[in-house]
Specification:
Helices cover about 10% and strands about 35% of the residues. It has seven helices and 59 strands.
Length: about 775
C-alpha cells in the first residue's frame, strides 16, 4: 500500500522489508535551472557541494552546499566556467571540491588551468571511479581520457563511443541497490530496487510533484544523515528550486543492514598507474561501524565537561573590518591562511608579488575602495614570512599600522633549498625561529644574527606541521611518511622518539596539550576521513592512546589549544563548523562540547591573547574569523548564572606567552625560561569561590503543622471562617448606596439628550 500526499509519502519497500519515509526537506531557492536540452548532467553533488546548470548566459554554473547553514538557509553562488553553455559536469569521487565541467566552446574546465580539448557540441565528462584525477571526455566524435594533474590527454586521438549510452547514463543513477529514474521536463521520480535475480527491477516508490524536473542527482552515501535512518537523498533541480528528497527508514536504533560498507574517499591508484594497465578497487569505508558506534556513544551516560555548553558568537558589526577585496583564497593546505595578534591581523592578497595586507584591530570599519599600503614581497608568500624562493623574510610593522607599502624586510634568512611551508617562533626565547621545508629538513634560525643555528633531519617525506613544547625544550613534527617525531634540538639533530601517525596523506597539524604530557594530531585516516589522535609524549612508539572521528572534508582541521581550560577548538579552511573539545589526561581523553556554526564558509580562525577576552561575560577565548570579504571577532563564552562574580574556576592565572623570558643565545647555551603569570580578575569583582553562600528559603511549612491533631469542631470553624473571608461582610453597605443624587432639571436634560442621540445611533448602525 502506498499513501501519497504532497511531497510526503510512505511506501512499502520490499528490499528493506520496512516502511520507508520519503520527505522533502527545506527547498534551496534563488535557483534558475537551465532549460536547454543536453546529454549531460544538469546537476551533480559531492559530499559537500552541489553544482547545477543555470539559465544565465556565459557558461555559468551555480554552486551551493549540500546541507543548510546553522540558520537553516542555503547560500547560492554562481561562477563563470566557459564562454558558452555548460553541457555536463562531474565531481571527483575523491575530492569534494574538484569539479570538472565541459561546454560547447570545446573546453573542459576544473579547479586547475583550463584543459583545451578537440570536442564539438554537447561533450560529456566523467571522473574515473577508482583512479585519482582521471577524467573521460566524450563527444559525438569519440572519447578522450585526461590526466588532470598534468593537463594532458592519455589517449592520442578520439576513440568512437556510443552516444546513446552516454544519454542513458546521464538520466539513470545507481546507489546501493536503489535506482532512481527521472526524465528532463517530467514531474515524476521513480525509485526501483535492483535484484540479482528475477524480477531484476522492483518499483518501490513513485513520486509525483507539481514541478517539472530539469535534472536529478544523488547525494553521496558518506553525506547521508544516519541519525534519522536516511538511506538515500535525491536532489531535484527545477526551474526555481533545488528540492532535496530524503528517503528514510523509521528505526528506533542503529541497524547495520541499512548501511553496508560503501566506497571510500581514497583512490585505489593514480591516473598513470591505470594507464599502465593496473586495475584496483577502491577500499570500502566502514561507515556502518563508525556511525553505529557514534550513535551508541551519544546514548551512553558518561562524564560531562563544564564547557559542554560553550557558545560561539560573532561580535557586533561595529567591531568588523569589512569591504576586504582581493583576498587570496587558494593558499596551500600547509598554510593556516592568515595570522593575528592582539593588535593587528595579516591576510594574503591575490596580487602579484606576494602582497600582504595588515589591518589594525583597533580600527574597525569599512575599508576604502582604493589601494591600501601592504607588505610587498617579490614572490608568493604562504606562511606570511616565507616565499617560493626558499627564503624567510622578517618584517617590522610600525606602531599604529602601515602607512605606506613596505618593500624592504628587516632581514632575510637563507639556507633552505626548497619551498618553505611552516614556521614557528620559540615560545620563550626571543628571536628564535623554526622552519620546515620541502627539502625535508627543520632548521632553527637566530634573528639577531640572521644565521642558521640548527638543522634537524630524519624525515622521509613532506613535513606537515611542527610545534614547540610548552617549556620550549622539545620540538614535535608530523610527517607525510606516517610518522610523528620528537626532537631535542640542543642535544641531537635526529629524533629522540618517533611513532606511527595518521595514515592519510592529505595533511596534518600537531599541538601540545595537558601541560606537555600529550601530543594532539589532527589528520586523516586511511579512508581520508578527518580524525583527531592523542599521543603520549613519553611513548610515541606505542601509537595513539585515543582517537575520535570528526567528519569527511578535504581541508585539515587547524587546532587551537587553551592551556588554562584545556579546551581544544578546531576548524578547517572552507568549513562552516567549529569543533570544541575538552582534553583530559586520562580516559575518556576527549569530551565533546557544543559546536559553533557560521553562516558561510570561512578562511579560518586565529586566536588572540587571553587578555583580549571579556571575563565579565565569561569569555574564555576570542578569535578572529576571516571571511570572504570581512574580518570578524568571535567570542567563545561559558554560560553562568552568577556572572556578577569572577569565575575563577575557568580563569586561573594565565601565562604571558607573548613576552620572551630569555634570549635565543641563552637558550642555545642550555638555559630554560618560564613565563610570568597574571590574574585576569578585575579589581571590582569577587571570585565566585568566595561568594557568600545563600541560605535556602523554606518553601513549605514544617511537617509538625500537618501532623497536629485537630478536633472536628476546630476544622469546621476554620472552614466557615475561610468562607466568610471569601464572601466578605454582608452587613457592609453596597457601593451604590454612597452615590449622591442629582437635581430634577438635570434628569430632564439628560432624558432629552438620550432621545436625541439614540435614533442617530440606530441609523448609523443600520
Amino acid at each position: 500500500m502506498i499513501l501519497v500526499t504532497r511531497f510526503v509519502f510512505i511506501l512499502r519497500c520490499p528490499v528493506l522489508e520496512q516502511y520507508c519515509c520519503v520527505s522533502v526537506q527545506g527547498w534551496i531557492a534563488s535557483v534558475r535551472g537551465g532549460s536547454f536540452s543536453s546529454q549531460g548532467k544538469h546537476i551533480t553533488s559531492s559530499c559537500s557541494l552541489v553544482a547545477f546548470n543555470t539559465d544565465q548566459a556565459g557558461g555559468m554554473v551555480g554552486l551551493t552546499s549540500v546541507n543548510a547553514a546553522s540558520d537553516g538557509k542555503w547560500t547560492v553562488t554562481q561562477i563563470s566556467c566557459h564562454t558558452d553553455l555548460v553541457t555536463d559536469m562531474d565531481f571527483s569521487p575523491f575530492d569534494d571540491y574538484l569539479l570538472a565541467t565541459c561546454s560547447a566552446d570545446e573546453t573542459v574546465s576544473h579547479d586547475k588551468p583550463v584543459i583545451v580539448c578537440v570536442c564539438v557540441w554537447s561533450p560529456l565528462v566523467l571522473f574515473h571511479p577508482a583512479a585519482s584525477e582521471l577524467l573521460a571526455v566524450a563527444s559525438v566524435r569519440g572519447l578522450q581520457v585526461w590526466d588532470v594533474t598534468r593537463d594532458t590527454a592519455l589517449t592520442g586521438k578520439h576513440t568512437p563511443v556510443c552516444a546513446r549510452f552516454s544519454l542513458v547514463f546521464s538520466y539513470f543513477t545507481l546507489n546501493s541497490g536503489l535506482l532512481t529514474v527521472s526524465g528532463n521536463g517530467e514531474s515524476v521520480i521513480d525509485c526501483f530496487e535492483v535484484n540479482s535475480s528475477e524480477p531484476f527491477l522492483s518499483q518501490v516508490s513513485h513520486c509525483l510533484t507539481d514541478l517539472s524536473t530539469r535534472g536529478t542527482a544523488l547525494v553521496p552515501k558518506l553525506a547521508l544523515d544516519v541519525s534519522c535512518c536516511e538511506v538515500l537523498r535525491l536532489l531535484q533541480l527545477t526551474d526555481n528550486f533545488i528540492v532535496p528528497i530524503s528517503y528514510q527508514v523509521p528505526r528506533k536504533d542503529f541497524h547495520a543492514d541499512l548501511y553496508p560498507d560503501t566506497v571510500g574517499h581514497t583512490p585505489a591508484m593514480t591516473a598513470e598507474d591505470w594507464w599502465k594497465g593496473e586495475n584496483k578497487k577502491v577500499l570500502t569505508s566502514q561507515r556502518s561501524h563508525s556511525w553505529g558506534n557514534h550513535w551508541i556513544a551519544h546514548k551512553k551516560i558518561g562524564p560531562s565537561s563544564k564547557f559542554r555548553h560553550i557558545q560561539g558568537a560573532v561580535l557586533h558589526r561595529d567591531t568588523h573590518i569589512t569591504n576586504l577585496r582581493g583576498l587570496h583564497l587558494t593558499t596551500p593546505g600547509e598554510c593556516d591562511g592568515f595570522c593575528a595578534n592582539g593588535q593587528r591581523v595579516a591576510v594574503p592578497l591575490a596580487i602579484a608579488g606576494g602582497q600582504i595586507a595588515v589591518f589594525e584591530l583597533s580600527q574597525p570599519g569599512k575599508l576604502p575602495d582604493t589601494a591600501l599600503p601592504t607588505i610587498q614581497n617579490s614572490v608568493n608568500v604562504y606562511p606570511f614570512r616565507t616565499g617560493d624562493d626558499a627564503k624567510i623574510r622578517v618584517w617590522q610593522i610600525p606602531k599604529g599600522g602601515l602607512t605606506e607599502t613596505l618593500t624592504e624586510p628587516e632581514c632575510v634568512l637563507r639556507g633552505h633549498t626548497e619551498k618553505i611551508y611552516s614556521i614557528k617562533f620559540h615560545p620563550h626565547a626571543s628571536g628564535l625561529l623554526a622552519s620546515s621545508s620541502y627539502d625535508l629538513t627543520v632548521r632553527l634560525w637566530s634573528l639577531g644574527t640572521g644565521e642558521e643555528v640548527k638543522r634537524l633531519s630524519g624525515h622521509q617525506d613532506q613535513i606537515f606541521g611542527i610545534a614547540w613544547s610548552p617549556d620550549g625544550k622539545l620540538l614535535a613534527t608530523v610527517c607525510k611518511d606516517g610518522k610523528v617525531r620528537l626532537y631535542d634540538p640542543r642535544k641531537s639533530t635526529l629524533p629522540i622518539q618517533e611513532g606511527p601517525g595518521p595514515e592519510g596523506h592529505r595533511g596534518a597539524r600537531v599541538v601540545w596539550v595537558c601541560d606537555g604530557k600529550y601530543l594532539l594530531v589532527s589528520g586523516f585516516d586511511s579512508r581520508s576521513e578527518r580524525q583527531l589522535y592523542l599521543f603520549s609524549a613519553e611513548s610515541l612508539a606505542s601509537g595513539s592512546v585515543a582517537s575520535v572521528p570528526a567528519d569527511v572534508s578535504p581541508s585539515t582541521l587547524i587546532p587551537f589549544y587553551d592551556p588554562d581550560t584545556s579546551v581544544l577548538i578546531l576548524t578547517g579552511k572552507g568549513d562552516t563548523r567549529v569543533y570544541t573539545y575538552e582534553i583530559l589526561p586520562e580516559a575518556p581523553y576527549f569530551m565533546e562540547c557544543s559546536s559553533f556554526h557560521s553562516s558561510e564558509p570561512h578562511k579560518g580562525l586565529c586566536f588572540l591573547p587571553k587578555t583580549e577576552c571579556d571575563v565579565r561575560d565569561v569569555e574564555v577565548a576570542r578569535a578572529i574569523r576571516l571571511g570572504k570579504s570581512t574580518i570578524e571577532p568571535v567570542a567563545f563564552r561559558v554560560p553562568r548564572v552568577k556572572k556578577e562574580f569572577f569565575q575563577d574556576d575557568v580563569f586561573p592565572e594565565t601565562a604571558v606567552w607573548w613576552e620572551a623570558s630569555l634570549t635565543a643565545a641563552a637558550w642555545l647555551s642550555g638555559s630554560n625560561g618560564q613565563h610570568r603569570k597574571i590574574s585576569l580578575q578585575p579589581k571590582d569583582m569577587m571570585p565566585v569561590s568566595e561568594a557568600p553562600k545563600e541560605v535556602p528559603v523554606r518553601k513549605y511549612l514544617p511537617s509538625s503543622v500537618y501532623l497536629e491533631e485537630k478536633t472536628d469542631e476546630q476544622k469546621k470553624e476554620e472552614l466557615l471562617s475561610a468562607m466568610v473571608a471569601k464572601l466578605g461582610n454582608r452587613e457592609d453597605p453596597l457601593p451604590q448606596a454612597s452615590c449622591e443624587g442629582v437635581d430634577e432639571d438635570e434628569w430632564v436634560s439628560e432624558e432629552l439628550t438620550t432621545h436625541t442621540h439614540t435614533p442617530r445611533m440606530i441609523h448609523d448602525t443600520l
